[in-house]
């Protein structure tokens, strides 16, 4: 946000603060994978790049000169954050010993189809690999 967006900043801080108060105390020990995945996501190059482009895209437009409404870009950013978070969650679950799609789904709470879909993306980016079959089920490992 720029200094010209003071009211937007105030609104976001109020919303976040009210949400935190409403949810009550947080038990970090209950969410070890989720917290590590969130930290990995926030430190990712993709997220940093996209956040760094927000002002340029909403004020001057994209590389094609098309202007973007803030809400549209925020929707894209939300989708990217969710995808990156879920990929990191899967990566960490595999590192903790969940190797089949069903085990990964159980460890992460993600649907089987979503896990399968994101495993393909993780394989393409050389973060995980197909290790073979065990009891007619594909098994994966981290790289």
- CATH fold description: Arc Repressor Mutant, subunit A
List the helices and strands in order.
HHHHHHHEE
* Overall average pLDDT: 91
Instruction: State the name of the first-level CATH class.
Output: Mainly Alpha
Order of the strands making up the biggest sheet: 1-2
Question: In this structure, how is the largest beta sheet organized?
Answer: 2 strands, antiparallel
Global structural class: mainly alpha
Number of helices: 7
Distance between the termini: 37 Å
Q: What is the second-level CATH architecture?
A: Orthogonal Bundle
Morphology: flat
Strand residue percentage? 5-15%
Oligomer: single chain
Topology:
Blueprint: H1 6-23, H2 32-42, H3 45-52, H4 54-59, H5 70-95, H6 101-108, H7 112-124, E1 128-134, E2 137-142
Antiparallel strand pairs: 1-2
Helix pairs in contact: 2-5, 3-5, 5-6, 5-7
